[in-house]
């Protein structure tokens, strides 16, 4: 009897496994057609990425070995990885590929927020349409006085670092960026302790999402629940829900003229659209804070770090500033949008820093139906990874000096070999909604920093080990020394 039961159970198990494999036959067929490293059943290429601190270098290595379109398995998930801009154009616009890869749900968990960055389908379409105007030039320009005030305070507090030991410019600037983003999104003047809580959550959130993303074992809920991370996620979510509820209450008593914040705009959208609920208001508010803080800080820090490493570029940028702001004393300076539009060289430095080190280095989409790509058909259920990092380092699109920081390559506008060869803010309907906001904020901080300080670093390009922990990080840290101008 036991033998019959045992044999039946094995038979049923085998049948279920074969059925599962059969439903996925198109994935295996595509995997077999595409080049890629040897993968093992159930774990896929997990072992090649076990040390995710090498993930970007691994992608570079694979793209030079297997070409610009190859496959990779993370657990039982098939990723088609492209480093070719024409593929990216097809993918980012294809109606079957508007949804983010399912693994983005780990961001929701890690950052404790559900909003534009991760939501899918019709809900995303509706939210994107309603929220887009809040990030247009007019809206962003209204934040410039708020940014100016906060940056000027920050310039003063930084003076204690003049001629002292080298410090991590990213860690130092996260505080000002979180505060700037909180000033403009929810108008919350957070104390230093609160800023630290936020920055801790930002980093923990990234670590959590990355761990689950790359490790198929952590993707199993019962294993994940044994780690300390679900408790941190709960803490993040509770902290932010309480903060939002308090602030939403306060905003209801503010006069109409003062309602200039991103949150005020979201509350207005909610008033006018019954399908945009208070949960949506909180989710989108939090999403802007989470999607905007570390990305902008990492990018700004990289701009200053690159200028510290390339003193001749820093001097060129400083001289440009002296022509736009000729007054010797910059104490009462109030930088305007018009001033920023005259800073062509600084614009080139920002673009170039984000080319060599794109803060968002890899993005991914999920195929919801067949997608023709080159001579292949990407079937429903496959994930497509867009490897921005390798594209930005491609010799084909950026020349033999692709690994070097040379802002002059953007001189005279963008003469790109392909319009999608530069992807720092992505392209297509799901590109970065906050790119204007980020660029204005980054350039404003850069102006004040370079006018007041000179930056140096002992590090060279070849010293750097970089990896993607959702955003790009450098193992050696972005260590700079600061000197008075
Ligand atoms: C230099 C700083 C920034 C960089 C490099 C950056 C980069 C990106 C990239 C590459 C994407 C596409 C992600 C994907 O397809 O998976 C994206 C999406 C997004 N970004 Fe940014 N971002 C920056 C700053 C900001 C800021 C300041 C905000 C908001 C205040 C923001 C909000 C968003 C949102 C909400 C999305 C999702 C858009 C959608 O799916 O419709 N970002 N960003």
Question: Could you explain the architecture of this structure?
Answer:
By secondary structure, the chain is an alpha+beta fold. The chain has one domain (33-484): Cytochrome p450 (Orthogonal Bundle). 53% of the residues lie in helices and 10% in strands. The protein contains 20 helices and eleven strands. The protein has helices at residues 2-23, 25-33, 55-66, 85-93, 105-111, 121-131, 137-141, 144-158, 169-185, 192-214, 221-224, 229-251, 262-272, 278-309, 311-324, 337-340, 344-356, 388-392, 395-398, 435-452; strands at residues 69-74, 77-82, 167-168, 362-366, 371-373, 376-378, 383-387, 453-456, 466-469, 471-474, 479-484. Strands 1-2-7-4 form a four-stranded mixed beta sheet, with helices on both faces. Helix 9 crosses helix 10 and helix 14 runs parallel beside helix 20 (435-452). It is globular. It binds protoporphyrin IX containing FE (HEM).
């Amino acid at each position: 009897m036991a033998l019959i039961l045992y044999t039946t159970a094995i038979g049923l198990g085998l049948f279920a496994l074969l059925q599962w494999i059969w439903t996925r036959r198109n994935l295996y067929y595509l995997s077999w057609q595409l080049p890629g490293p040897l993968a093992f059943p159930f774990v896929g290429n997990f072992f090649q990425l076990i040390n995710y601190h090498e993930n970007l270098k691994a992608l570079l290595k694979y793209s030079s070995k297997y070409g610009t379109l190859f496959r990779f398995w993370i657990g039982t998930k098939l990723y088609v990885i492209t480093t070719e801009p024409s593929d990216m154009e097809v993918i980012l616009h294809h109606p079957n590929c508007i949804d983010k890869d399912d693994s983005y749900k780990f961001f929701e968990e890690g950052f404790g927020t559900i909003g534009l960055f991760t939501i899918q389908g019709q809900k995303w379409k509706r939210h994107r349409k309603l929220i887009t105007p809040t990030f247009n030039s007019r809206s962003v320009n209204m934040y410039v006085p708020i940014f100016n005030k906060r940056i000027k305070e920050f310039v003063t507090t930084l003076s204690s670092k003049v001629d002292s030991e080298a410090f991590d410019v990213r860690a130092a600037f996260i505080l000002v960026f979180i505060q700037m983003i909180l000033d403009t999104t929810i108008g919350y003047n957070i104390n230093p302790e609160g800023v630290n809580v936020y920055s801790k959550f930002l980093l923990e959130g990234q670590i959590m999402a990355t761990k689950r993303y790359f490790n198929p074992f952590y993707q199993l809920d019962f294993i994940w629940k044994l780690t300390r991370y679900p408790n941190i996620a709960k803490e993040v979510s509770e902290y932010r829900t309480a903060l939002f509820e308090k602030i939403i209450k306060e905003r209801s008593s503010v006069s109409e003229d003062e309602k200039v914040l991103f949150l005020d705009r979201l509350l207005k959208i909610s008033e006018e659209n019954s399908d945009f609920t208070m949960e949506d208001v909180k989710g989108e508010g939090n999403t802007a804070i989470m999607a905007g803080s570390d990305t902008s800080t990492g990018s700004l820090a990289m701009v200053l770090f690159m200028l510290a490493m390339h003193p001749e570029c820093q001097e060129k940028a400083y001289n440009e500033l002296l022509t736009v702001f000729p007054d010797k004393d910059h104490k009462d300076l109030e930088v305007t949008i018009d001033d920023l539009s005259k800073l062509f060289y600084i614009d080139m430095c920002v673009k170039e820093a984000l080319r060599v080190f794109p803060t968002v280095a890899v993005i991914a989409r999920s195929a919801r139906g067949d997608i023709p790509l080159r001579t292949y058909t990407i079937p429903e259920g496959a994930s497509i990874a867009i490897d921005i990092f390798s594209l930005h380092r491609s010799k084909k699109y950026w020349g033999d000096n692709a690994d070097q920081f040379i802002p002059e390559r953007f001189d005279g506008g963008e003469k790109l070999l392909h319009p999608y060869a530069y992807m720092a803010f992505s392209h297509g309907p799901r590109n970065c909604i906050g790119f204007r906001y980020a660029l204005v904020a980054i350039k404003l901080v850069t102006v004040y920093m370079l006018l007041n300080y000179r930056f140096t670093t002992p590090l060279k390009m070849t010293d750097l080990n970089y990896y993607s922990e959702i955003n790009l990080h450098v193992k050696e840290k972005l260590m700079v020394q600061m000197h008075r101008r």
